[in-house]
Amino acid sequence: MKNLWLCLAFCLTTLVAHAQLQVRGKVLDQSTNSPLIGASIWAEGTGRGTVTDMDGKFVLSKLPEGTWTIRVSYLGYESITQEITIPTSEELIFRLQSKEFVSEEFIVSATRASETTPTTFKTIDKAELAKRNLGQDIPILLNFTPSVVSHSDAGAGIGYTGIRIRGTDQTRINVTINGIPLNDAESHGVFWVNMPDFASSVDNVQIQRGVGTSTNGAATFGASLNFQTDTRQEEAYAQVDNGFGSFNTWRHTVKAGTGLLNGRFAVDARLSKITTDGYVDRAFSDLGSYFLSGGYYGENHMVKVNVFSGKEQTYQSWWGLPESLLETDRTNNYYTYENETDNYQQDHYQLIYTGKIGTNWKTNLALHYTYGRGYYEQYREDDDFADYNLPEVEIGGEVISSTDIIRRRWLDNDFFGFVGSVNYISDNGQWDVILGGGANRYDGDHFGEIIWARIAGNTDIRDRYYDNNAIKDDRNIYAKATYELKPGLNLFGDLQLRGINYTFFGVNDDLRIVDGEENYTFFNPKFGFSYEKGNRTWYASYAIANREPVRSDFTDNPITEVPRPERLNNIEAGVRSRAGNFTYNANFYYMDYKDQLILTGQINDVGAYIRENVASSYRAGIELDGAYQVSSAWTFGGNIAFSRNKIAEFTEYIDDYSVEEFRQESITYSDTDIAFSPNVVGSAIIEFKPTKNLSLNWLSKYVGRQFLDNTSNENRALDAFFTNDLRISYSAQPKFFKSLEVNLLINNIFNELYEPNGYTFSYFIPGDTGRELITENYYYPQAGTNFLLGVSMRF
């Protein structure tokens, strides 16, 4: 660490050693005279450039004496140039004229909330994401947003990671990319490991908490994440990001773009490679991805093609750490077989059109196809032949019924369809109406192979011991309308009809035949209002969401006992304020669940744990989020959420091995806490900018106690934790670069020992007094003090 600090100090000293002359100025919109934030300023032939700040101002430093051409550009505006002579004390004013293009924002606007939408949301732009993006996955980058708890199986934020928002996990969080569903159609999960370095190709992401507005794909049952990928750049560019860090972590990313060619065409590309050994023993990740985008941009029409892919190999650390090793061996990994790995590749293809029809209408249509395939490999010691539908083997008169094997469990799936919307805005702006929807099909194969056996018998390599298929059709249509009843007062309505057909057939991994078909039709209405006065917006809404069971609910339960769909009634109310140096959001929510599906410990007829409906449960809370810029040097920000998360009545089933014939004992509880739902979640960020180019950030995160199951048993819980990170960012405009940025992130600077995720199970065994209850807790420890260092060069 000492050598790292010395190296960083030397680099920064070298960069600032040759300060020369500077030019100050401002960039404004020609028609409105308002400042343009993030406009690019470039001194041609010098290798010097910068961007405007929140007031449209800029300082272009280190210019040598002489006459130079200054070029100013901004997305959606005509670029301009001006010759200046250095030195000069004149403040330059550049006024840019807007250039007519179809806005790329409309690609995602149909499924997003606006300032007048009566729901709780937060939009994070590219600059905010880039501050923390040193190769870690999306859940880790969003860790400091309201009500978020993130976790990592390998402990360092790369590989298998997860996110919970308001206590709901990512199987209940709707995720879309450019309005196209990302959640797996069967499990409803999102596997961020399949999308390494995706944040480097994200322009912005909106997080809607609660039901939110109607979207495509699985129902939102706690939150939604709506991503928009990179938009076009006015000028050609190239960018190289390199980084390294603890646990032998390396990141290499190359980005390039043509800028607008002939004022109409643009191509952008990214290639990334991330590797790490992981915090947990042997929990390595080897990740690669690419992103390619090309488009035509006209005055009234835009056509864009996105192709992106991720490929991963991760050593499994899914088992977790037994409680007995927490104090002595936190990096222990249960798995020891050298190729106990997960291997998967996912390719995405998107064809997007958006256009204007007359002065009042806009339309958007996207065709998409996703191809995913991969497996995880396991070494299994002394497994029964019967578990693989194989006959016993007789050798020398001895009957052998079990052996060591290596198996692979495969997924091979296709997901395709279309989403679209049309938007009407009246001449006076009083009506804003969106009609949208989509139709998507998932076709997935699930099968298992035996690739090696110590005693093979009458088997061949890659024999499939189970094989099944599932087809799921998901269709939805929605209508949203905002009506301005009077200046500042807006009424909002949102009606969605969703239909699902799910068929599955074949042999499951437990060798049971799973043939079935289920059909659902859901109606999801949402109503609310917002009132704007000055810099504040008050809002309130009521929304209903219905959600079908996931794959395991069908395959693990007898078909005649499939759980009922879940229903959520959601009330949101709050205020948003944007006034000068102080911004804040404050809101209340109440989420009432009917028939929420949870694990109770009950097993089916072949010993698999199944989920059951609980009649009544709820989440209620208050969320506060704000930031205050004290001066040009100091900014304070943070958020905190207080919540209560309860199940009215819960029945736990415990395996009983204390008797001769196996059975389960049931215990009923009242008013228990919902698992993984802390009552307090908060974060704080303090930013200090001693100079324009240097930023120091202190980031703190507090997460209250979380129960591992729904019994509120303090012996089955994750302790509260409080972590602190330090981020140091330095930017410069050295010769031959448009910009050079150095970022150092020191995570968990006080070496807090904490576990944000885990699982538990209990059982009875024979004891001295009849029987004894045994509870086993497993945890996913996160890394102690560690660092990531990144260097970004833009040409």
From TrEMBL:
Instruction: Note the InterPro entries from the entry.
Output: Beta-barrel_TonB, Beta-barrel_TonB_sf, CarboxyPept-like_regulatory, Plug_dom, Plug_dom_sf, TonB-dep_rcpt-like
What is one term from the GO cellular component aspect held by the record?
cell outer membrane
Where is each TonB-dependent receptor-like beta-barrel domain found? 330-749
Q: What keywords does the record list, in alphabetical order?
A: Cell outer membrane, Ion transport, Iron, Iron transport, Membrane, Receptor, Signal, TonB box, Transmembrane, Transmembrane beta strand, Transport
Please give, as recorded in its UniProt entry, the membrane topology of this protein.
Multi-pass membrane protein
The signal peptide stretch is 1-19
- The UniProt entry's coiled-coil ranges are none
Q: Which Pfam families match?
A: CarbopepD_reg_2 (PF13715), Plug (PF07715), TonB_dep_Rec_b-barrel (PF00593)
A GO molecular function annotation here is: siderophore uptake transmembrane transporter activity
Annotated TonB-dependent receptor plug domain residues: 115-222
This protein's source sits in the domain of life called Bacteria
Q: Where in the cell does this protein reside?
A: Cell outer membrane
Family affiliation:
Belongs to the TonB-dependent receptor family.
Which PANTHER family does the protein's record reference? FERRICHROME IRON RECEPTOR-RELATED, FERRICHROME OUTER MEMBRANE TRANSPORTER_PHAGE RECEPTOR
Q: What is this protein called?
A: TonB-dependent receptor
Query: What lineage is this protein's organism placed in?
Result: Bacteria, Pseudomonadati, Bacteroidota, Cytophagia, Cytophagales
